[in-house]
Design goal:
By secondary structure, the chain is α+β, with helices and mostly antiparallel strands. It has three helices and four strands, in the order ββαββαα.
Length: about 80
């Protein structure tokens, strides 16, 4: 699915307008939240998943607390 979106002025900000077809593919509607994730080849846009946020919080907590163990495992 190749699609180009133009950056446009929206009030005092800038943004993109998501076409109806893209909203349908994402299964989102006006007012829903989207998750923007950095990926090796660009950016991934997905519907917001509160469970994913919770899992990321747990992972960050473990990485902070167990930094030394993770560093040794990486060697």
């Amino acid at each position: 699915m190749g699609m180009q979106l133009k950056i446009t002025t929206i009030g005092n900000s800038v943004g993109v307008i998501l076409p109806k077809e893209l909203l349908e593919k994402l299964r989102v509607k006006k007012g829903d939240l989207l998750q923007v994730l950095e990926a090796p080849n660009g950016i991934t846009l997905t519907p917001h998943d509160p469970e994913f946020d919770r899992q990321m919080d747990v992972a960050e907590n473990v990485m902070r607390r167990r930094r030394d163990v993770l560093r040794r495992l990486a060697e």
